[in-house]
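lol so apparently i was supposed to do this last week
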Amino acid sequence: MSTQGTTTRPARHWLRRVSILGWPLVIALLVAAPDLGLSLYWQRIVMLVAIMGITTSGLNLSFGLAGELALGQAAVFASGAYTTAYLSTHGHTDLVLCLVASAVVAVVVGLIAGGPGLRLGGFTLAMASFFLVLLIPSVIELFGETLGGPDGLSGIPLPSVFGTDLGTDGLYAAIVVVGGIWLFLFRNIVKSRQGRILVTMRESPVLAASCGAHPFQMKLRSYAIAGIPAGLGGSLFVFLNAFVSPTSFGFDLVILLLAMSVIGGSQSVLGPVVGAFLLTYLPERVSVFQDYTLVAYGAMLVLIGVLLPRGAVGLLSGLWKRAVASRRSSSADEANPGALTLPPIDGRELHLRDVAVSFGGVRALDGVSFSARPGEITALIGPNGSGKTTLLNVVSGYLRRDSGGDITLDGKAIHGLRPDRIRRMGVGRTFQTPLIPRDLTVRETLMVGAYGDSRSGFFSAALRLPGYLKAERREREAADELVEAFGLAGRADMPAKDLSLGTRRIVELARALMGRPQVVLLDEIASGLDRDEVQELVEALHLLKRSGATVVLVEHNFSLVRAVADTVVCLAGGRLLAQGTPDEIASHPDVLEKYLGAGAGISGTDLGAHLDPADETSPVRTGPAQQGGAS
Ligand code: ADP
Ligand code: MG
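anyway here it is w/ adenosine-5'-diphosphate bound
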């Protein structure tokens, strides 16, 4: 155990407590501010920033964290606004009722608009949700006089709470409190296992699935939740303006919200507030903003997007994190790799019988059968394009096998199950391309690996319910255990993406072990490593083997295979070419001929020296079934 970890954790806990106390303090101060002399002008700025800030926070959730650009937030905001406008002009001025109704309508509108687009994702979602914004005036016209048509609804009364009219002072306090509470819940989501899995999904949906998440459901949920603040914001906006019309929700608003998110920092908690402040305050002060609103926002979007991709808050917090991390790592004590142990793993026998996978006319796998046993490392070798990655993908559920043939774990069939199910049944894996999300520390990266083992969701994360706290504690303990086991203790709080390639590969291995898998599939985990890093990896693999796991290792470097493997399976053109001990394979005539090309001999023991190791142009990366990068 690193002594460092034990001394800094209480301090960090303490800091976190204090920073949580900051929330009610700031909210209380803002509520009291008018009595302390805050001018009407500034009160209006505070209210607008709160309203636009929470609306933008929804964009941060779906776009900044989950990585799906949905431009429909303006339409969702409009649906919340019109719900409140309708209710309050029909005698229902209760603030809580209006807020809840607006949020519900907003979520429903958001889901109707986003659901179909989300399935396809990317450009389709952006376009589909944008068209929704263009439809706003026509939809409002459909409702006729009920919603006031093109002229809008005016004379909206101030809200009441439990029958008491709030008045303008009360409205100010209500907006600050609602905005503050929502932002606190939003913060709780961002800084939770849900926030981490969203960031992981942004990096790669396939990776998120390998951690036990269901990417589409996650996207749909985060998209639905993003509707809540838009609905709340729309409702408060109507009370503040006492007027609503279709012209408030056009293209300008789409760009404004996007600009607030990007300029403030689309991946941060306070970014929306900072962005909302800058774009509410600047236009009042700088006349160029008033005269050329769209041009100014567009130019700022482009500039910030290029120069400060993580926005104002991202820039500051990045600098701060780096300073803290460098102070920590310089005093970090590295663990001694010789003394490492992993808790015992109850390995399962993985058996493939006659498994075939075709892509159109190409047979990537053609009737492959073999077994990988617990406590052993089974190396999978073969030329590029021989079907190794395809084999790992079909075992872990990203590809469907052709009919006939089966894949079993200790006799139990796993073929045909979804990737997140297979992961939960005890199959962990790494990917050929290194996949480490930005914004996560080493410990957090590992914690994501155990995502599928707990059921606690967004709601329990937002409210910090016991189920969430338990899951978080369990993930942290499991991550700390592996951090120790792999000698990463000194680097646990560093951004994982900043580590050397070799250490990142170890982190990926450790993440794959977080779900306590009985079968571990490793795809070219040593490619690109230097000699020392390969040595570290060899030790890690021995550790894994001693613990009892079933390991399948795709590898080109035959000296590494020799050093760790018990059995070698050689594929060529999707077929099983040979199977045996490393020594048997090294002298197998078919392997020599097919793997190395006719006439070549094994020079040294490094078969990999004869091959193109990275294979960056392989169609594996571009094929449709590989969307999201299961390579
Ligand atoms: P390896 O990992 O051994 O280098 P792969 O399993 O990646 O090989 O690829 C095996 C074969 O399947 C190759 O011929 C490749 O072109 C093909 N293939 C792999 N994935 C796809 C895909 N998504 N679409 C079409 N062909 C694919
Ligand atoms: Mg491959």
